[in-house]
């Protein structure tokens, strides 16, 4: 008697049509502007965070609210300057360039402005879901709603907006991202780092040190920004192209 | 089950279809299924008969063999239980405070210091032994749990405030007649411990805390013993704890004792005391007693039952007010009246720990003739809060002794209470100096004897001798005021030295205990690690099986014996063999090193036994390196277990354990959702994500049920009871058990229908009988609320209570007696029928085949869940139902991601179990034990049932988790799986490891932080919880999990044949 059907059979090959198995890392444009931008982006983001920290401790809601548009502008600028827009990379990956062949200008590429707009819309739409996720982890349900909502907005902007821009709503790509099967790159690394950082940010909250910065959600914001920066750097460099989960039928 | 669903879908693991013509079916029939006789196989009759006989013999042999294997497994776990008990015992004996009890008694003729002056009748009981006596008689009224703020005016409308104004009134109006002061109890604040302190004048030791259920006689010198030896007569009325402490002390006929643990009954004890006390105060009865003790329990019981914030508390306090007024009008001028609380109560009316509210009781002394004085004018007003000018409870001992003219008990550490000796003008400094000198001298004498008995030189620091010398000097020069101050300082100083001294820990024993736990943990980790030959469970190949079966049928002797079959036997044998030389070596060593403590032989035996067992297991091919995690799941198990155990080093993480558990549960759900994305089959992928999300959401929903501990304030809101200072449920909460009764069976059904296991006994038992039981439990809580809030004034309270108790008993009988019977006798939850296959041949179909083990076993944890839901109060019942749903989702996640061999399943069960503990209104604090649950199915305390009921209430979460543990090995497993017992035992090993890590960590931290301010508030209770949970899990593992698996395998194998 074979085991229940749910058990993945190691001998069964992964189905070819599974696009997540083919998902390629998101590569930063090779233009000098883009290459400089990827580092400048981090500097600006962390600089903003550092400059606002004391105000964050003082009044988290106001600070998170005031910085939200700034962060949005930073992320939009970064995406448009450095990241390939959704759809542009798939065609590139599909066509291998012969040696000596010059890359053609992609006339049929998607419109980056539309993509930016749609990504922002998606980021806004996903924010309540992120809020819900925080509540499920034990965040206050009925109180601290502005804090939670703003925190979720920041998380969505940092972790999810670049992914929306780079992948659109490609279900295969999102299945790969959701299943941690996507290859590391700046976007996925940043997302994973941000989530892990926010998770770790909960650790100091219960301590009885009576510090102002222990109040909700400051530590989470710190973890989020630190994790995003670290994840983005690592994902774009040493981990580039590597995968957490190597294939779809990995048995564990 | 609707027949239509039986016919759809292709053959899968959920049901098994066998075509009649198929040759395989022939073998299958021979080997496995007696019910298939009519499948129509043409075979030579004689040959088939011989084969049949042989098959039966083989089956019988396998059954006996299985029984033997099972007993070895049980032996293995019993041994583990003993090792854990030994480790805990060792640590406890070194950790919990120990104090040497001296046999010396004070005597009237031998004062501790030469007496200064002469008075009429000096040195006799009639005139006063060591000091002139002031009163002939005393009436001591103990109002259990009388917190200080109940007796002073407070500007609010709380039901427990301003209801008992008499004490404060008199102290303000006539300070020469009455004194009211805060009365600080030493923890543990349990009545038994307090009575010991109040009569001996010494500090309690923590280890006594556990004996509250059965007190034992005090043989230490105490007030009552001094009274009795002086020929005085003592009368006792009320709480029968006194009787167990002082057997044979009280005057027969006029003493009346009442049951002390019946917390549901607010009035019997009080009415009895009130009824019998007044007549004794009449003139003609005066000669019949010298000390009259009245111990009232109503206030304490009202606190336990309703919490202080309830009209019943107001009524009770008003009754006390009236009662004390009445006594004061009756007593004469030579009688001292003392009214006191033995401890306070926390905001929910419970006690036992050392929070401020629990230790702050009230003391009121009254004399008909002007007697009391104040040395400072501002002392006339009673303190507004218990933080101002408190007296220690033990101070009452020398005070009463000196006032009544009897010797101060030998072991006393308390000092005289100022007001009683300061004279009416408050300037009797010579008298104060005299009483403090005699008290201090007694303490000094006791210190000398104590150090002599311990065989050590007095370790008293020099400055203490200095204080004594200064005091004696002042005494000699008749500077009474200075002498009084110095003697008092000496007494205070000695008291704090003694507190430090008896907090002295036996570090070698603590280390030994932790070592035993550590070695046992390494062993258990290796045991439950996944070795190379442990994947026998996955090898479920029917072809291979058949070949094997055929071979066995032909040749009886070639029954190969895989290593898992003999594992437990060889471990147990090695453990027993190792224990003997260990014991000898330990005994020798303890003699050689001069420790002279034979208990170390036991420790060495335990250690050697574990090491021998470990060696035997390593010899059989296991490796220590196997315990290292190899997958994300392995790492996750390690992170969850270790990070929490490290966190127990911090009081904050210990205090917020409930929130951390939710955080981990949600984290697991997220990881499993992410992992589910990798499942190839779209249906299973969706199911995996679905169950992960359900798992997370359920955890968050259950987390709304909480009972905050004091340290969590103000960041926490209790929802478990109607209000933060109540211990009854709100009306809306009564809906929860009904919702559980409606929905839980439906939820269970939703897990049984997909694997086609909603067959056999399932629909009847779960859908009807079990649901009825749940409705009965829900009805019980309605009756309870009706009784508490007096909804039906026409019905007597007794009637409601009786109906409730019998209903609860019936529910428990349904869950345990009927449930166990059904579980043992039920056939597997499968359904067999024959239908024509598409090719026209007859086809035999078994529905529920793929979950034959799991579905049937599920009945057992369900029954236990039912009992726990009844015993856990409405909110807790709802939380437990949700927790069980989480467990079912966990089983699906484990199955969908093939995690049954990983440690994560058991570790998550451990986390869920602890989560359930916190969600059923418990905290890692002694005061959160819901003693009142003992009266759900009983009218009074009955052994052994009452402790069992309280244990079921307290550890419901963990008990359900252990009971459900075998599902990890059994869920979605068909009847042909081999080594089911060993898989279960290995999973149990992982679960016990989880609790053993926690237990060891809390032990280590409590030992390490033994000087921490929060030791008794945070670390020590968490250690006790960890130890109790570990032993409970071990025990339930044997009694429920292993026993249940045996009954299950017997039933499944009777139908499908024995596989190994």
TrEMBL record, chain A:
<keyword id="KW-1133">Transmembrane helix</keyword>
<feature type="transmembrane region" description="Helical">
    <location>
        <begin position="112"/>
        <end position="137"/>
    </location>
</feature>
<feature type="transmembrane region" description="Helical">
    <location>
        <begin position="218"/>
        <end position="240"/>
    </location>
</feature>
<feature type="transmembrane region" description="Helical">
    <location>
        <begin position="187"/>
        <end position="206"/>
    </location>
</feature>
<protein>
    <submittedName>
        <fullName>Glycosylphosphatidylinositol anchor biosynthesis protein</fullName>
    </submittedName>
</protein>
<feature type="transmembrane region" description="Helical">
    <location>
        <begin position="69"/>
        <end position="91"/>
    </location>
</feature>
<keyword id="KW-0812">Transmembrane</keyword>
<feature type="transmembrane region" description="Helical">
    <location>
        <begin position="39"/>
        <end position="57"/>
    </location>
</feature>
<dbReference type="Pfam" id="PF06699">
    <property type="entry name" value="PIG-F"/>
</dbReference>
<keyword id="KW-0256">Endoplasmic reticulum</keyword>
<keyword id="KW-0337">GPI-anchor biosynthesis</keyword>
<dbReference type="GO" id="GO:0005789">
    <property type="term" value="C:endoplasmic reticulum membrane"/>
</dbReference>
<feature type="transmembrane region" description="Helical">
    <location>
        <begin position="149"/>
        <end position="166"/>
    </location>
</feature>
<keyword id="KW-0472">Membrane</keyword>
<comment type="pathway">
    <text>Glycolipid biosynthesis; glycosylphosphatidylinositol-anchor biosynthesis.</text>
</comment>
<dbReference type="GO" id="GO:0006506">
    <property type="term" value="P:GPI anchor biosynthetic process"/>
</dbReference>
<dbReference type="InterPro" id="IPR009580">
    <property type="entry name" value="GPI_biosynthesis_protein_Pig-F"/>
</dbReference>
From TrEMBL, chain B:
<feature type="compositionally biased region" description="Polar residues">
    <location>
        <begin position="1"/>
        <end position="13"/>
    </location>
</feature>
<feature type="transmembrane region" description="Helical">
    <location>
        <begin position="1027"/>
        <end position="1045"/>
    </location>
</feature>
<feature type="transmembrane region" description="Helical">
    <location>
        <begin position="571"/>
        <end position="592"/>
    </location>
</feature>
<dbReference type="GO" id="GO:0006506">
    <property type="term" value="P:GPI anchor biosynthetic process"/>
</dbReference>
<keyword id="KW-0472">Membrane</keyword>
<keyword id="KW-1133">Transmembrane helix</keyword>
<feature type="transmembrane region" description="Helical">
    <location>
        <begin position="730"/>
        <end position="752"/>
    </location>
</feature>
<feature type="transmembrane region" description="Helical">
    <location>
        <begin position="598"/>
        <end position="620"/>
    </location>
</feature>
<dbReference type="Pfam" id="PF19316">
    <property type="entry name" value="PIGO_PIGG"/>
</dbReference>
<keyword id="KW-0256">Endoplasmic reticulum</keyword>
<feature type="transmembrane region" description="Helical">
    <location>
        <begin position="988"/>
        <end position="1006"/>
    </location>
</feature>
<feature type="transmembrane region" description="Helical">
    <location>
        <begin position="803"/>
        <end position="836"/>
    </location>
</feature>
<dbReference type="InterPro" id="IPR045687">
    <property type="entry name" value="PIGG/GPI7_C"/>
</dbReference>
<dbReference type="InterPro" id="IPR037675">
    <property type="entry name" value="PIG-O_N"/>
</dbReference>
<feature type="transmembrane region" description="Helical">
    <location>
        <begin position="948"/>
        <end position="968"/>
    </location>
</feature>
<feature type="transmembrane region" description="Helical">
    <location>
        <begin position="899"/>
        <end position="918"/>
    </location>
</feature>
<keyword id="KW-0808">Transferase</keyword>
<keyword id="KW-0812">Transmembrane</keyword>
<feature type="transmembrane region" description="Helical">
    <location>
        <begin position="70"/>
        <end position="97"/>
    </location>
</feature>
<keyword id="KW-0337">GPI-anchor biosynthesis</keyword>
<feature type="transmembrane region" description="Helical">
    <location>
        <begin position="632"/>
        <end position="653"/>
    </location>
</feature>
<feature type="transmembrane region" description="Helical">
    <location>
        <begin position="764"/>
        <end position="783"/>
    </location>
</feature>
């Amino acid at each position: 008697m074979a085991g229940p059907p749910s058990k993945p059979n190691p001998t069964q090959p992964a189905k070819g049509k599974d696009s997540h198995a083919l998902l390629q890392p998101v590569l930063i444009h090779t233009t000098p502007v883009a290459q400089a931008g990827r580092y400048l982006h981090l500097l600006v983001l962390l600089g903003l965070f550092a400059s606002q920290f004391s105000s964050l401790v003082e009044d988290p809601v106001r600070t998170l609210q005031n910085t939200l548009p700034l962060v949005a502008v930073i992320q939009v600028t970064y995406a448009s300057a450095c990241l390939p827009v959704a759809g542009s990379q798939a065609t590139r990956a599909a066509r291998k360039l012969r040696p000596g062949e010059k890359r053609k200008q992609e006339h049929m590429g998607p419109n980056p402005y539309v993509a930016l707009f749609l990504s922002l819309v998606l980021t806004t739409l996903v924010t309540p879901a992120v809020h819900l996720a925080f509540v499920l982890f034990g965040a206050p349900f009925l109180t601290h709603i502005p804090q939670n909502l703003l925190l979720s907005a920041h998380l969505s902007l940092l972790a999810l907006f670049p992914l929306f821009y780079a992948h659109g709503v490609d279900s295969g790509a999102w299945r790969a991202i959701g299943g941690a099967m996507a290859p590391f790159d700046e976007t996925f690394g940043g997302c994973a780092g941000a989530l892990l950082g926010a998770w770790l940010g909960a650790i100091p909250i219960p301590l009885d040190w009576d510090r102002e910065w222990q109040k909700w959600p400051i530590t989470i914001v710190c973890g989020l920004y630190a994790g995003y920066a670290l994840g983005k750097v690592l994902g774009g460099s040493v981990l580039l192209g590597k995968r957490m989960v190597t294939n779809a039928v990995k048995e564990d | 089950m609707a027949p239509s669903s039986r016919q759809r879908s292709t053959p899968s693991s959920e049901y098994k279809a066998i075509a009649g013509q198929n040759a395989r079916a022939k073998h299958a029939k021979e080997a496995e299924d007696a019910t298939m006789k009519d499948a129509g196989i043409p075979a030579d009759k004689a040959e088939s008969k011989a084969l049949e006989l042989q098959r039966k013999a083989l089956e019988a042999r396998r059954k006996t063999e299985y029984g033997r294997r099972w007993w070895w497994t049980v032996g293995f776990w019993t041994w583990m239980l003993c090792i854990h008990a030994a480790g805990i015992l060792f640590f406890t004996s070194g950790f919990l405070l120990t104090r040497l009890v001296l046999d010396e008694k004070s005597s009237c003729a031998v004062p501790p210091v030469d007496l200064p002056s002469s008075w009429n009748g000096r040195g006799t009981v009639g005139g006063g032994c060591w000091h002139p006596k002031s009163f002939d008689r005393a009436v001591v009224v103990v109002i259990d749990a009388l917190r200080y703020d109940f007796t002073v005016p407070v500007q609010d409308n709380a039901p427990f405030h301003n209801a008992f104004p008499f004490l404060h009134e008199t102290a303000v109006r006539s300070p020469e007649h009455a004194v009211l002061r805060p009365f600080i109890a030493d923890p543990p604040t349990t009545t038994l411990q307090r009575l010991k302190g109040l009569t001996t004048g010494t500090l309690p030791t923590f280890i006594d805390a556990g004996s509250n259920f059965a007190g034992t006689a005090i043989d230490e010198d105490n007030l009552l013993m001094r009274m009795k030896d002086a020929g005085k007569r003592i009368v006792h009325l009320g709480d029968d704890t006194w009787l167990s402490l002082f057997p044979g002390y009280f005057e027969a006929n006029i003493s009346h004792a009442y049951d002390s643990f019946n917390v549901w009954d607010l009035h019997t004890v009080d009415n009895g005391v009130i009824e019998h006390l007044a007549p004794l105060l009449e003139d003609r009865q005066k000669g019949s007693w010298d000390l009259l003790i009245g111990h009232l329990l109503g206030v304490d019981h009202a606190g336990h039952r309703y919490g202080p914030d309830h009209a019943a508390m107001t009524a009770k306090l008003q009754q006390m007010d009236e009662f004390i007024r009445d006594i004061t009008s009756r007593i004469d001028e030579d009688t001292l009246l003392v009214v006191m609380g033995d401890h306070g109560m926390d905001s929910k009316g419970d006690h036992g720990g050392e929070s401020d509210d629990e230790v702050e009781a009230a003391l009121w002394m009254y004399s008909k003739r002007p007697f009391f004085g104040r040395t400072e004018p501002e002392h006339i007003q009673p303190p507004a809060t218990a933080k101002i000018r408190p007296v220690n409870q033990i101070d009452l001992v020398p005070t009463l002794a000196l006032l009544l003219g009897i010797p101060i008990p030998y072991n006393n550490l308390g000092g005289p209470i100022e007001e009683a000796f300061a004279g009416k003008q408050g300037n009797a400094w010579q008298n104060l100096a005299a009483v403090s000198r005699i008290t201090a001298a007694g303490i000094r004498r006791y210190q000398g004897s104590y150090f002599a008995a311990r065989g050590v030189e007095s370790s008293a620091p020099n400055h203490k001798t200095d204080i004594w010398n200064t005091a004696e000097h002042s005494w000699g020069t008749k500077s009474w005021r200075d002498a009084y101050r110095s003697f008092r300082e000496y007494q205070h100083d000695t008291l704090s030295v003694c507190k430090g001294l008896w907090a002295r820990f036996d570090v070698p024993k603590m280390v030994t205990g932790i070592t035993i736990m550590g070695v046992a943990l390494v062993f258990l980790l290796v045991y439950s690690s996944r070795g190379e030959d442990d994947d026998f469970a996955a090898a479920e190949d029917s072809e291979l099986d058949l070949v094997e079966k055929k071979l066995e049928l032909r040749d009886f002797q070639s029954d190969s014996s895989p290593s898992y079959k003999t594992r437990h036997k060889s471990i147990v044998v090695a453990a027993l063999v190792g224990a003997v030389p260990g014991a000898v070596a330990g005994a020798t060593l303890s003699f050689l090193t001069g420790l002279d403590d034979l208990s170390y032989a036991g420790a060495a035996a335990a250690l050697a036994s574990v090491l021998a067992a470990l060696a035997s297991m390593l010899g059989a091919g296991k490796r220590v390196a196997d315990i290292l995690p190899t997958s994300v799941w392995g790492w996750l198990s390690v992170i969850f277990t270790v990070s929490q155990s490290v966190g127990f080093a911090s009081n904050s993480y210990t205090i917020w354990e409930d929130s951390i558990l939710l955080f981990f549960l949600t984290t697991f759900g997220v990881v499993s959702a992410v992992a589910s994305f990798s499942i190839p089959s779209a249906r299973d992928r969706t199911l995996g994500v679905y169950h992960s999300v359900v798992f997370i959401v359920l955890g968050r929903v259950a987390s709304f049920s909480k009972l905050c501990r004091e340290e969590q304030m103000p960041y926490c809101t209790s929802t478990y009871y109607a209000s933060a200072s109540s211990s009854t449920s709100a009306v809306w909460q009564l809906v929860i058990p009904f919702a559980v009764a409606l929905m839980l069976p439906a939820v269970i059904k939703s897990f049984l229908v997909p694997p086609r296991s909603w067959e056999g006994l399932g629909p009847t038992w779960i859908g009807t009988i079990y649901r009825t039981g749940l409705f009965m439990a829900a009805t019980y809580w309605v009756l309870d609320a009706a009784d508490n809030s007096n909804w039906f004034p026409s019905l007597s309270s007794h009637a409601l209570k009786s109906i409730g108790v019998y209903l609860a008993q019936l529910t428990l009988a349904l869950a345990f007696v009927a449930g166990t019977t059904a579980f043992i006798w039920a056939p597997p939850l499968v359904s067999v029928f024959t239908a024509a296959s598409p090719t026209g041949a007859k086809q035999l179909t078994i529905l529920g085949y793929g979950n034959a083990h799991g579905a049937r076993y599920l009945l057992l944890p369900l029954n236990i869940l039912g009992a726990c839901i009844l015993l856990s109060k409405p909110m807790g019942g709802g939380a437990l139902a949700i927790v069980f749903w989480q467990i079912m989702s966990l089983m699906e996640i484990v199955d969908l991601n093939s995690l049954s061999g990983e440690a994560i399943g058991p570790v998550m069960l451990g986390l869920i179990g602890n989560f359930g503990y916190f969600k059923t209104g418990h905290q890692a604090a002694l005061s959160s034990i819901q003693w009142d649950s003992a009266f759900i199915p009983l009218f009074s305390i009955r052994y052994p049932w009452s402790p069992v009921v309280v244990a079921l209430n307290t550890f419901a979460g963990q008990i359900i988790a252990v009971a459900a543990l075998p599902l990890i090995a059994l869920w979605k497993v068909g009847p042909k799986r081999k080594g089911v017992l060993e898989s279960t035992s290995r999973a149990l090993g992982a679960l016990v490891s989880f609790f053993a890590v926690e237990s060891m960590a809390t032990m280590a931290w409590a030992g390490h932080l033994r000087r921490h301010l929060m030791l008794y508030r945070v670390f020590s209770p968490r250690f006790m919880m960890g130890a109790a949970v570990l032993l409970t899990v071990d025990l339930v593992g044997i009694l429920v999990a292993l026993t249940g698996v045996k009954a299950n395998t017997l039933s499944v194998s009777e139908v499908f044949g024995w596989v190994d």
